[in-house]
């Protein structure tokens, strides 16, 4: 896993001023697993940062998902995807972008 991802998560907890643990929905994915997920959903990138150990899909149960997304965006440390119907925010250490 990219150690910058853990730095991003640490900074995110500091920004939100919370001590609770992240709920990790998805972290590293093998190419085979990513391909299977991509075949089932158009929301899964074929060249996902998950396969490089550079991404996590996360939630914090006591933090509103919009607040989690906004805090991640404010850090400007990588990509931030917002998936409210699935109950998680994607963060990665790739280029700064949002969706």
Structural class: alpha+beta
Based on CA inertia axes, which overall geometry fits?
globular
Element-level helix/strand string: HEHEHEEE
Give me the Rg, rounded.
Answer: 13 Å
- Mind telling me which CATH architecture this is? 2-Layer Sandwich
The largest sheet is: 5 strands, mixed
- Percent of residues in helices: 25-40%
Compute the average pLDDT: 96
User: If you consult CATH, what is the topology?
Assistant: Muramoyl-pentapeptide Carboxypeptidase, domain 2
Description:
By secondary structure, the chain is an alpha+beta fold. It has a single domain, classed as Muramoyl-pentapeptide Carboxypeptidase, domain 2, CATH 3.30.1380. Helices cover 35% and strands 21% of the residues. It is built from three helices and five strands, in the order αβαβαβββ. It has a five-stranded mixed sheet, covered by helices on one side. A hairpin with a 4-residue loop joins strand 3 and strand 4. Helix 1 packs across helix 3. It starts with a helix and ends with a strand. The model has no long low-confidence stretch (mean pLDDT 96).
């Amino acid at each position: 896993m990219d150690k910058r991802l853990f730095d991003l998560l640490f900074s995110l907890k500091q920004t939100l001023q919370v001590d609770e643990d992240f709920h990790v929905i998805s972290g590293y994915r093998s190419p085979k697993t990513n391909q299977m997920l991509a075949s089932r959903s158009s929301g899964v990138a074929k060249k996902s940062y998950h396969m490089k150990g550079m991404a996590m899909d996360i939630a914090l149960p006591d933090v509103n998902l919009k607040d989690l997304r906004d805090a991640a965006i404010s850090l400007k440390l990588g990509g931030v995807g917002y998936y409210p119907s699935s109950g998680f925010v994607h963060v990665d250490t790739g280029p700064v972008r949002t969706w």
